[in-house]
Amino acid sequence: MPSPVPLTDAVAEHVHDGDTVALEGFTHLIPFAAAHEIARQGRRHLTLVRMTPDLVYDQLIGLGVADKLVFSYGGNPGVGSLHRLRDAVENAWPHPLAVHEHSHAGLANAYSAGAARLPFAVLRGYRGTDLEQQRDIISRVTCPFTGEELAAVKAVNPDVTVIHAQLADRDGNVMLWGITGVQREAVLAADRAIVTVEEVVDEFPERTGAVILPSWVLAAVCVVPNGAWPSYAAGYSVRDNDFYQRWDAIARDRESFLAWAAENDLKESADV
Amino acid sequence: MSEWDSAEMMNVAAARELYDGDVCLVGVGPPNLAANLARHTHAPNCRLVYESGAIDAKPRRLPLSIGDDDLAATATAVVSVPEMFNFWVGAGRIDVGFLGAAQLDRFGNINTTVIGDHAHPKVRLPGAGGAPEIAAAARRVIVIVKQSPRTFVETVDFVSSVGYGPTGQEREAPGAGPTLVITDHGVLEPDPVTHELTMTRLHPGVTVEQAVAATGWTLKVADSIEEVPAPTEHELTVLRKLRDREPIDA
Questions:
Q1: Which residues neighbour A50 within 8 Å (Cβ) at sequence distance 6 or greater?
Q2: What is the mean pLDDT of each run of 10 residues along chain B (250 residues)?
Q3: What gap in Å lies between CA A132 and CA B197, rounded to an integer?
Q4: How far apart are CA A22 and CA B246, in angstroms?
Q5: Interface test with B, best of A76, A86, A130 (most B CBs within 10 A)
């Protein structure tokens, strides 16, 4: 039952070595605390999925948690490169990282197809780009009604999706608002979903534009105040832009990255 | 007149290309500055759309990321990312898309993915993000990029977003394709027939020779090349306030 459980228990029960894991959040509500718990428990060989990998995946990749990355934009927005991601792709450190690469439109639709339990999604995109060379995830279909040739993108169905949200109620339903990104689709596409929340309330406030996820589509809800830091939770915290800037220097070389990991009780995966 | 640099000139020139009432898809970096500058100068009714889902965002200061809370808090509507790309970008509801590039070729094809081979790249860049569909579907696409032989290359290593295709004639997408390329040297426009990017305007103080030297292919230059008017005092004041993240009175 998705009544609040400790984050350590939720990760231990629902995230396994070799799983395909989506930790979503489009700038807002990024589940950093849950990601760090996954690293602390030493998960290995994960396929990580996310539209905007951001710092949290830079950290997981640098720690050797991931074998593969499925993504559409891997940068530190407004700052520059993700240096751990680059080191993995360019130099296979700490080990090789395979990539499946989409556009935002493509990956958003791949999640939507996954949520609908359809095998693929259709869009009028990708044409003329070299992203189409990845024929195992991006192909073409002909519209049976008009004959138009369209892009087909293979559904993404994570074993587990992890998101952060503002609120849960006593029944384990979850509410999030502000920039809601692709979180609902990623949760519904997954086999299991873990949600960390800022707090539990007796009753949800009335709020236009909020996304509600009923308890029965969730595997576990965990109360983790400030679980999105250094990203933010609208109504609770602001984005720590200084940390995003500082990360560039921390991640730029392996030594400073490993020192940061040690300070934060994050160790490299055993067999890197 | 205050002194200004080539990056400021580039942002001002880009802002001037937005019309009042345009629906503009805004990305991080120079596009963010240019779109907000336009809204606070000659185009107060320019509608800013951010790919994070904010529609008609009216940021009170320059957002640092495309997902700042201020964008959601001031927007007419906030939609999910799949809705943004399917109903708004893909369906052709965007007048102007601004794009950047790590490499650009003479037919407006853009690389933001890798330098070198995709499987074993020399440099891994962030990737395509929202650009392929913006490039495909926006009614006008404006590329903002600093001009150098490393960026303006004969052939891009990877096509992340299509311009007019490898020979300039392969574009099949619904939108118009890259209509302007604005650089720190001036402005390039595609030839109406061949689609080859042609230098049509130069910023004040920039020579044709400098533009040619900053281009990695044999640059085509218009017969009569115009000079872009220098930034006005007002444009510079607003631009610098935005850059320093001071609140602006609309």
A1: A22, A23, A24, A57, A70, A71
A2: 90 97 92 95 97 95 91 95 97 96 97 96 96 95 97 98 96 90 98 97 98 98 97 96 84
A3: 25
A4: 37
A5: A130
Compute the distance between CA of residue B77 and CA of residue B178 in angstroms, rounded to an integer.
28
Q: Would you say A11 and A38 are in contact if contact means Cβ atoms under 8 Å apart?
A: yes
State the count of interchain CB pairs (< 8 A) between A and B.
169
**Taking the CA of residue B34 as centre, how many other CA atoms within 13 Å lie in the half-sphere pointing to its CB?**
32
Helix (H) or strand (E) holding B200: strand B197-202
Count Cβ atoms within 10 A of the Cβ of residue A59 and give its class: 0-12 exposed, 13-18 middle, 19 or more buried.
buried
Q: How far is CA B7 from CA A158, A265, B34, B41, B244, in A?
A: 43, 42, 11, 18, 15
Residue B51 annotated in active site: yes
Q: Please tell me the distance from the alpha carbon of residue B64 to that of residue B75, in angstroms, as a whole number.
A: 16
Catalytic residue among B51, B133, B196, B235: B51
User: Which residue out of B133, B158, B164, B172 would a mutagenesis test of the A interface target, given it has the greatest number of A Cβ atoms within 10 Å?
Assistant: B133
pLDDT digits (tens, 9 = 90+) for B77-101: 999 999 999 999 999 999 999 999 9
- CA dist., res. B192 & res. B66, Å (int): 34
**CA-based R_g, chain B, Å:** 18
pLDDT digits (tens, 9 = 90+) for B126-168: 999 999 999 999 999 999 999 999 999 999 999 999 999 999 9
Tell me the nearest-neighbour CA distance from A108 into chain B, angstroms. Answer: 5
Q: Which domains does chain B carry?
A: 6-243 (3.40.1080.10)
% of chain A residues with pLDDT over 90: 93
Block residue for tokens 């200084």: A242
Can you list the domains of chain A with their CATH numbers? 7-103+156-264 (3.40.1080.10), 120-154 (no CATH)
Out of B65, B129, B170, whose CB is closest to A104? B129
